[in-house]
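Risk mitigation, structural track. In case the binding assays with alpha-L-arabinofuranose fail to produce interpretable data, a predicted complex structure has been prepared as a fallback.
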Amino acid sequence: MKQFIQLIAFFLAFECIAQKQEPTFKVNVSQVESEVSPTMWGIFFEDINMGADGGIYAELVKNRSFEFFKPLMGWKITSPNTLQGFYLGSEITIVNQPEKASTNPRYLHVNLKNPNPQSLGISNEGFRGMGIKKGLRYDFSVFYRQKTAHTVLVIELVSSNGQVIGQTKISPNDTSNEWQKLETSFTANETDAKAKLNIWFEGNGEIDLDMISLFPSDTWKGRKEGLRADMVQMLADMKPGFIRFPGGCIVEGHDLSVRYQWKKTLGPIENRKLIVNRWNYEMAHRLAPDYFQTFGLGFMEYFQLAEDIGAEPLPILNCGMACQFNSGELAPLNQLEPYIQDALDLIEFANGDSTTFLGKVRINLGHPKPFNLKMLGVGNENWGTQYIERLEIFKEKLQAIYPNIKLVCSTGPLPNGPLFDYLNPTLRKMEVGFVDEHFYSRPEWFFANAKRYDSYDKKTKTKVFAGEYASQSVGMVSPENKNNWLTALSEAAFMTGMERNAGVVQMASYAPLFAHIDGWQWTPNLIWVDNLKSMATPNYHVQKIYSNYKGTHTVSMLYKDKQISAGQDSLFASAVIDKNSQELILKIVNQSKDKRQISIQIEGLSKLPKAADLIKLENENLEALNTLERPNEIQAIESTITLSGKNVDLAIGGYSFTTIRLKTNAK
Ligand code: AHR
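Fallback model:
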C-alpha cells in the first residue's frame, strides 16, 4: 500500500513538472497572418468636454467677439454705476451691426467721460478661469475703431486671490474709424490656474472694440494664436496613425442649421462665424450654456495638426442628416447638392495643386504642399434607409471623380442589434472602404468580445474602422463613469482581438479624446486637463503602447489549448512582428487577480536574444485611477529581462497588461 501511494505521488509530481514545462503560449514568427495597417491605431478629436474651445485651442478669452447668445456671457462690467451686480450705466454698450460683418456683427461700444483710473472696465473670466504661468509672455490683441484717440486701455491679469500678476497699457492711435488690430505682449509674474483678465478704460472719447483675445506664447511649435503645446504633445506621443475629426455628433448638429460646415472654419479668425456647440445643451445633467464653437481650431488647423503628429487626416462630413438622437432633420434627396459639393471641395482643398481653385485657397493659407487626403467619412452614427439613400448618391458622385478616396461609413451608434444588422451587410454590399463601428459598453463586454473580429471575413474589400469605443465603468453616458484600471484592462484585452485581426480592422480610435476637469459633459475620456496641466488616463497608456508598438505584421500566437488566446484562464494575447525594427512584440493581458508564471515558446527564430524589453501596466486595485493631482498612480513601467533556455519565461502580475519586445535578428 505504501509503495502504491509512493508511486501515485511520483506520477503526480511528474505530471506537475510536465505541466509546468508545457508552454503557455506558442508563437510562430514565420507564420505571418496579415499586415498591420500603418493607420491601425489613431485618435478621434471632437470639440466635446471643452476639448477645442477652452482646451487645445489656446485662446484664454471666452466670448471674445460678444457673439454668444448672451453677448456679455463670460464678461463683467466694472463701474460705479451698478446695482446688485447689474450695470445701470450707458458708457459700455453692445452694438449689433450686421453690415459690419455678417459673421461677427456684435461689438462693444465704450463712451468715456474722464473716468478715474480703474473705475470703468470689463473683466473676462476665461474658460473656467485662465491658466497663467509665471515668466511666460502673453499676447493680447483687440480690434478697435475710433474717430479720436483719447482712450487708454489698461490690461491686467488678476490671480484668483486678487493679485495683479501681469499688466500693460495700450493707447490705440488710429483715428480712421476703420477696424484695426492692435497687439501687445506682457509677461506674467505668477502662476495661477484660475486667473482673469481685466481691461480698464481711461480717458475721454468713444471707441469700438471686438475680438478681445489673449494667448500664451508657449503654443505648439510656437505658432501665433495656436494650440496648447502640452495637449498636442500628448497626441504626438501616441504616434497616431490617423486623426478623425471634427466629430462625432457635432458634425451632424442638433438640426441642420448648426451642422459643422468646414468652409466656414477657414481664413481670418474674426470672420469665422461662431455657432453653438451641440454639447452646450445635450447633457441635461451637465449643461454648459457657455459652450460655443469659435472654430479657432478649424479645418486648416486640423489638417496641420494631422501633419504635425504624423497622422493621416480623416475628416467626417455631414451627409444631409442632423443627429438622429436629436431632430433627425433631413436634407431632401433632391437637395443634397451642397452637401456633396462640400465633400468634393474638401478633397480639392486638401489635395489640389495651384491650378485648382481650392488648392490655391490652401496655398494662400500657407500650405503649398497637398495634405494627401486618402479617406473621407460620410456621416457620423447615421442609420436607417434614409442614411443609405443619401450615401448612395454621395458615393456615386464622389467616386466618379475621386475613385481612390476611401469612404468611411456609419454602422450606427451600436455594434449590434437591428440598426447594425441592416447597415453592416448593406454597406459591405456597396463595397465602401470602411464600416465605422462604435461601442461604448461595460468592461465585461470588452473582455467577452475579444473574439468579435475572429469571425469576420478577412477577404472582403470593406474593412472595419472601430471609430469610437471606450469601456464604461457604470454605463453609457453615466456621469459616474471613471477611467479606472478595469476599463483600461478590458480595452487592452479587447484590443488583442483587434490586433490579431489586423487584416479586418485597419483603424481604431478611443472616444472621446479630451475633457476639461471643470467643463466636461461626457465621461470617460482619454486625456483629462485643467487650465495648466494634462493627464494621461490608464486608457491612454494602453492606447499609446498599442500604437507605439503596432508592428508591421501579425503572427500566430496560440494558447496551450492550441486556440487563439481570448480569455482562457483569464489570459488574452496577440503577437506582431515589426519588419523595420526587427522585433517580435507580444501583448498579454491577465484578467485575473492572481500572478501567473508564463512560458512562451517561440518558433521561427534561429536564436532567442539574450534579453527582452518589458512594458508593464498593472494594479491590484481595479478601481485605481490617475488624477491631475496624482497622475502617475498607473503608469507604464519599462524593464529588461534576461532570457536563457528555449522559451521566454516570465511572471506577470494580477490584473496586468504586459508588452514584451524581443529582437528577431539575434545571432
Ligand atoms: O464620443 C461622444 C459621442 O458619442 C460622439 O459625438 C458620438 O459620435 C457618439 O454618440
